[in-house]
Amino acid sequence: MSGRGGPVAGGGNDPAARTESFEYALIRVVPSVERGEAINAGVIVYSRGHEYLCARVHLDEQRLRALDPAVEMSAVRTALKVFERACAEGHLADQPLGARFRWLTAPRSTIVQPGPVHGGLTDDPEAELAHLFDTLVR
Questions:
Q1: Is the pTM of this model over 0.70?
Q2: Beta bridge partners of 22
Q3: pLDDT tens track for 98-129
Q4: CB neighbours of 96 closer than 8 A, spacing ≥ 6?
């Protein structure tokens, strides 16, 4: 499931594709802040130049239970869905994509929290999202 904030420009073989900056952050589940253990459960990608904002999540419940057998799985699932939905709908929908991304990546002291923001260059932010998700989350 994903939410897109605007049209995606570019594409791998498109001669009109343009390279633009993008930013991303992992979405982590930290069941016990005291222990400092976390699992990656999603990624958010934002590109102002491509007018793109999207999050993709996947919760590996078995890995999370290994960190905390008593974790409230339904609450974690709900919190992860907020990241996906907030990219395109909800109370942030009338905000510019950059403002939505900054809200989503603001530090939190909850069980589901964004990691640090990283950046790069891309001509296809949707492909970057797929690559980051497959590499860092799954």
A1: yes
A2: 120
A3: 999 999 999 988 899 999 999 999 999 999 99
A4: none
- Residue spans of the domains in the chain: they are 20-137
Hey, what amino acid is at 85? R
CA distances 35 to 44, 86, 138, Å, are: 25, 29, 23
> Hey, what are 96's tokens?
């510019």
Mean pLDDT, the chain, rounded, equals 88
Residue 57 backbone zone (phi > 0: left; psi -120 to 50: alpha; other: beta): beta
Tokens linked to 42: 């999603």
Q: What is the 3-state secondary structure (H, E, C) of 73-114?
A: HHHHHHHHHHHHHHCCCCCCCCCCHHHHHHHHCCCCCCCEEE
Q: How far is CA 38 from the centre of its chain?
A: 15
